[in-house]
Specification:
This protein is of the alpha/beta class. The protein is 37% helix and 21% strand. It has 21 helices and 27 strands. It has an eight-stranded mixed sheet with strand order 4-7-3-2-10-13-14-12, sandwiched between helices. Helix 10 links the parallel strand 16 and strand 17. Helix 13 packs parallel to helix 14 and helix 15 runs parallel beside helix 19.
């Protein structure tokens, strides 16, 4: 692959798929990252939510993900205790029963399913694959087997079709098609082996953010120092328990470099041939947050931020009726109806998860002018402010992040930012609510019933006008135009169809979708929102329920497609959280 094309594949954003290569029509691979979630970061059910956030953090930056799971907490010990109670005499931790691996693998398989469910909740597509599905084979001792093979072609196809593949570690398929286990550190070994077979980088996630010159949990007056790069030999000397010797031996044997980190952190240590002198460790300081809005999304953001009290602190929230939220259990001391209280709280970040343009637009502008970073899910306010808000951000050097303002769990705006200057056309389903409703109506449901179900599931607001009449999608179209094409357009420049035209636009054998389009491929910017009867094979037609799909065509003939959930509390919340983590990771030490 010429370097120029390789760079493009790596730089493209989000849940992307290169549809076609200009080189002889061959498929172009999307960069893949293998993540391993060790048992130290999967201690409880809530940890799976953080694991899903970690996957999404990399996923939205343009990488497909293979996620390898360990068993949660002490699940393996629990299963082993059960086996000792009912298994054959003479059975030990080292084996003695040919069916013991069948039982012990259930911990990792359960863990993989839980992680896939957590990903589904936040709108990221995930597909669970087992060792047998992927041709992951091993030979030797059934409790301590050696890996021998992987059907890489099958795994690459799964990544092409699903973007994220979750697989259990620790288990493979051995002689006579029986399950075998890979011994202590088997999940680390699985991840490193899979990454090596794919030619992909690997990140092993632990409860520490890298390799240190001593155990970070030890009490000492001496400053803690972290390695940016550390050799295999120094890992054995300095951090032996952090990674199992079999996994480390494998990586060293094949000359594989990999990284050790922790979920949510941009800090990690590269393990390889050489060591650099360790440097004094630092941690991002805790960031103070002021919010506006505590509705469906705002409540989700509150809960997720509260889960990360070591990184963030919500100091003030502006709402219309504090009494309503006091009754729901929110602390009275932080609720206010006065914007002046938000400024007085001296926040580092302002989160806008409200709905109307004002007072959100004015507050966003004022916060940026004061050097306060802004994370906004308010597409109407951001679209109305447009280039002026971007100018305020540039002048004050305060970040303006609004990934959650369009696409929900589909990072369409990240793609626009990364590829601006070479985008010729964007066609997308930018409103998950109407996509869900159209699917229900296509199955024979009435408009009223489809709307009621959408509201019951939290996809539609009590007043659905913004969704069904196209105001919501039009605001997102304006953001795509601004970030992807550098053009600020008004709502009146966007021709749009409402759902009242559904019956008139239906055609037998087609799938009806309301497609947002921004195009400059004729030299003139065109923006519209149309009900279109699509072939069932069209990528946009394949978006089910509240799913959102988008197709990017570029001036050089390339095409990318991206996908994700376009509606719901948790996909939008996750996009807000990802922006918060970006800010936290960019912030200087405490």
């Amino acid at each position: 692959m010429p370097p120029r094309l390789a760079d493009r594949a790596i730089s493209a954003s989000g849940l992307l798929r290169r549809a076609k290569s200009p080189l002889q029509g061959l498929p172009m691979p999307v960069p893949t990252l293998v993540l391993n979630f060790g048992h130290s970061v999967l201690r409880s059910l809530s940890d799976y939510t953080d694991a899903a956030s970690e996957i999404y953090r990399h996923y939205r930056m343009g990488q497909n993900i293979v996620a390898v799971t360990s068993a949660q907490g002490d699940q393996t010990d629990v299963l082993l205790a059960e086996a000792r109670r009912i298994g054959p005499e003479g059975m030990s931790d080292g084996g003695g029963a040919s069916n013991l691996p069948e039982l012990l693998q259930l911990g990792e398989r359960r863990s993989a399913a839980l992680l896939a469910l957590a990903l589904e909740r936040i709108g990221a597509p995930a597909f669970v694959r087992q060792a047998r599905d992927l041709g992951l084979t091993a030979m030797g001792d059934p409790m301590n087997a050696e890996l021998t093979g992987l059907n890489s072609g099958q795994l690459m196809q799964d990544l092409k079709d699903h973007d994220i593949v979750v697989m259990p570690g620790f288990v493979a398929i051995g002689d006579k098609d029986r399950a075998v286990l890979l011994g202590q550190g088997g999940s680390d070994l699985t991840a490193l082996y899979v990454a090596d077979q794919l030619g992909a980088p690997a990140l092993l996630l632990k409860d520490v953010d890298g390799v240190y010159d001593r155990d970070p949990k030890e009490r000492s007056d001496a400053p803690l120092r972290r390695y940016e790069r550390v050799s295999y030999a120094d890992v054995r000397r300095k951090a032996g328990p952090l990674i199992a010797s079999r996994a480390l031996d494998y990586a060293e044997g094949v000359g594989q470099r990999f990284r050790i980190g922790t979920p949510g952190s941009a800090i990690s240590t590269q393990v390889g041939d050489v060591s650099d002198p360790p440097v004094a460790a630092s941690r991002p300081r805790k960031l103070r947050i002021a919010m506006m809005g505590l509705g469906i999304v705002g409540g989700g953001v509150w809960r997720r931020v509260a889960d990360h009290a070591d990184r963030f602190e919500i100091v003030r929230v502006m709402v219309r009726s504090p009494e309503k939220y006091i009754d729901q259990g929110y602390p009275e001391a932080i609720l206010t109806t006065d914007a002046a209280d938000l400024f007085a709280a001296e926040p580092d970040i302002f989160i806008d998860v409200s709905g109307p343009i004002e007072p959100a637009l004015g507050l966003t502008r004022d916060m940026l002018s004061r050097g306060v970073h802004v994370v906004s899910a308010n597409k109407q306010a951001i679209a109305a402010g447009g280039q002026d808000l971007l100018d305020h951000s540039a002048a004050s050097q305060a970040r303006l992040l609004f990934s959650s303002a369009a696409g929900g769990g589909m990072p369409v705006l990240e793609m626009c930012l990364r590829e601006r200057g070479r985008i010729a056309r964007v066609e997308a389903l930018l409103n998950g609510t109407t996509n869900f409703m159209l699917g229900e109506m296509d199955g024979g449901m009435s408009y009223a019933d489809a709307l009621q179900i959408a509201q019951d599931r939290g996809y539609a607001e009590a007043d659905p006008t913004a969704d069904v009449d196209g105001h919501d999608a039009a605001a997102k179209i304006r953001l795509v135009s601004l970030l992807g094409f550098g053009k600020q357009i008004s709502p009146n420049q966007i021709e749009r169809d409402t759902l009242a035209l559904v019956d008139a636009r239906k055609k037998p054998g087609t799938v009806l979708k309301r497609v947002a389009r921004v195009s400059a491929d004729t030299g003139e910017l065109i923006a519209d929102l149309r009900l279109r009867a699509l072939s069932p094979n069209n990528f946009l037609a394949k978006a089910d329920g509240e799913d959102a799909h988008a197709v990017f065509d570029f001036t050089d003939g390339d095409r990318y497609v991206i996908r994700g959930k376009g509606a719901g509390r948790w996909p939008t919340t996750e996009a807000v959280l990802a922006d918060l983590y970006d800010l936290s990771n960019e912030t200087g030490p405490a």
